[in-house]
């Protein structure tokens, strides 16, 4: 009798798990059925489906996107290499892949013109992801069969084996269940529900947090004043769809500066966020020097030390090493790639840098002594809160400040005079991997897990997951033309009679009122508010738990003290409960943790909806990608369970 695995979610994450299952299956099982369940196209899934605007791009260059393991990946399963997005495109147009033809129409034209530094459309990426899945299916070992189901999983009927219930009827046997659905939508928070009710009562437009491509933006009239909250990638999609998507066009002056030519169908968008600036542009150059040697100050030994110690505060205890690691990579590239902008030699700087803490007066003096231009010095406070000292008297003066900021950011990320920024990016990736290891242990305090990890994820995304440079050039053109108006940092939006009122910390007694409000962001994770029927059902039965962290507050004598947040009395101490909204899984193998705190032997989850925070499902080649190591650890835990042997720990550390 074959064993059966059901993977709920057939996008890049589900495909990655399937690939790792197939790679290791011969080592564990003789007969295996794998069911891939997704209402969206297998391989591409919801986010990367072909059926979306051709104007929407990826935010990574074609050479920096792969779904295949390579020799850099340290994992227990076999390495099965394959082409990156760019290598696949070259092989297709050169006729080197059997059965792979250049697609018809605009996608084919794009594939023929694709270069390694091109930001491909999501529609082209959907073709690459389809190829990846078809390649996995074509190379399955003989004991594995894959069945694809273009529908939604809506529930689980427990038994031996369990049965996954499908929308519209039908069930699938599931000796093992893997939830790989990616970001999950959720019912509105109380605050979001109140804004929606206000809009209904007064005939306004309110767009809640959601995938921008799924929003009914055609409802926004031409000429409408719009307030948008959020300046990350969801806002970039909003900008593209409201302007180019309505027939507007950008014209290059010849020096890279763009002008916007309106179609007459545009709204006017007033936008702000917590940080008040767009995510940093993607770097569009290569390192000039050798790759910085990492990890240097935050590696497995330091993480092991934090685990032994426990009660670790990320901002207080770990951030100084994270910052020092990124600084090491940044200055390594500055010295190697731009020796004319430093005094002295790297070996002297590195020796003294290694002895100092970040960011002490002695470290500041060291950097000033070797790096004469303040613009070449790494300043995390400026990066994290660039508008901290800004309180403009009017909108016009704030626009000039923000445009100057975006222009500087563009220069730093597309001009190879600033390749030290790419060095910092490499350091960020190293720090991210190590923090992910630490986050999977009990070492961090509950408050730090709930709040500091969220801060770090946001900070990392703002630096490492920003838009292509051309998108910021378009943003500048829209700003100069008056179609995008910056509101700055600390944005607050409140319902008022006849509309919504926006204020910010960057404006002195200035407010904007509009009849349309767009939450240009994804919904916050929440198991308890999830509108996914499978997840909600598992949670209701106690088979899946929402991560809630418990922080006890006592003074030095052990006496209970008042908690900073809402607290309840418990065992003589004030207690704060921090709810992250994430699915609890065991870090070593991604097994679900049930309501009693027990790891489930047969049910797993992986992706951004879990408390193991991973980067994207695809990544840069030759970077020992954490996502690939995670997929491998989960796959081998699944196969181990099916083979009825003791689970292996997996290899997330490397």
From TrEMBL:
InterPro entries on file: FAD/NAD-bd_sf (IPR036188), HpyO/CreE_NAD-binding (IPR038732), L-asp_N-monooxygenase_NS-form (IPR052189)
Source organism, top-level taxon: Bacteria
Residue ranges constituting the FAD-dependent urate hydroxylase HpyO/Asp monooxygenase CreE-like FAD/NAD(P)-binding domain according to the UniProt record: 6-183
Signal peptide span per the entry?
Answer: none
Quote the protein name from its UniProt record.
Answer: FAD-NAD(P)-binding protein
Give the species.
Answer: Actinomycetospora succinea
